[in-house]
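S.,

Sequence below, as promised.
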Amino acid sequence: MRSHSLLISLSLILINSVYAQSDEQKGFVEIFAQVEDRALYVEGNKVAILDTAGNQLTPLLPLKGNYESVFMWDGYLYARRDESFTLINEDNKMGVFNVNGDMLMDFIYDTIRTVEVVEQYETIDYLFVVREGKQYVFKDTANRTMFDGFSFDIDGGKWLNSEIYVVIKDGKAKFVDLLQMTIDDKAPGYLKYNTSKIFSPTGVGMVNKMGDVLFPFEYDQIGFYSEHSPYFQIKKDNKTGVAHFPNEIILPMSYEQVRYQCGHHNFDDDFELFLIVQKEKGGPFTLAVKNEGSNKYEESDRYTFSEIECIYDDELDLNYTLVFSPEGKQGVLKDDMTVDWK
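The prediction came back faster than expected:
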């Protein structure tokens, strides 16, 4: 890989331990992410690995949506300084180079994802999740397929605060122990919680220890939940709804925003919950109430509010919901869903 011509004649300088190059014609400083004695050169959406003498170790190739290697911030494209590999693509196929310019994987994969293996808060190894066609497999940094060729249908992510990597095969979760190098149908018993949110490349989902997929890996957000506070917000396609633990959607994801009564954060099943919803951004607020004989909620035409504010009363040490009518009236929304208009 060292036969590539120089990108340009570079004289790299150090700025806060990061290599940079001044460009007098363009009037700015190019920033290079440093990994040991290597630098990642970024030109538009293309990257190449250089050494600190400016020698180009890899071809200049476009990045394919991999924000583990570079990310956008404040209008500039940066490369993460703690990456040992860079994922780049050619003809819409992914490949991997290491920081020495050695190709670890040829340009044959549809997607490649870097997975850090962490022990005692330190990264001790890397694996790759690669997809070729419809199936995913794990590979090591020598491009060897791991776990006796185990393949799966949907890539996932780590169980919270653990080195258990969750994937989906035939509709069920499989639990890959990245330290013990084992695969099981059920999660290890030592995991603290019975369920976990999984942050996958395709979105957030939720599984339980038995391998049941409570929410597929396709949501924008899944809010805080617990067995003692079972209501939580859930978001998909930038629209918000409400779910009840473990996986019952009680308010459809049709709203710009959903609010609870001010001053209430934990709701058990005995709490008379009602919701304040806004259908479209800038639009009015209405109430959503529980249907009789059902756990489902739907909008009510009892009230329409132009604005809603949470107010804290120092003297009473109390939060309350201040509401405004379209006509400009002001009142307090009470827990019995009535308004004390002032």
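DSSP finds no helices and 34 strands in the chain.

Coffee later?
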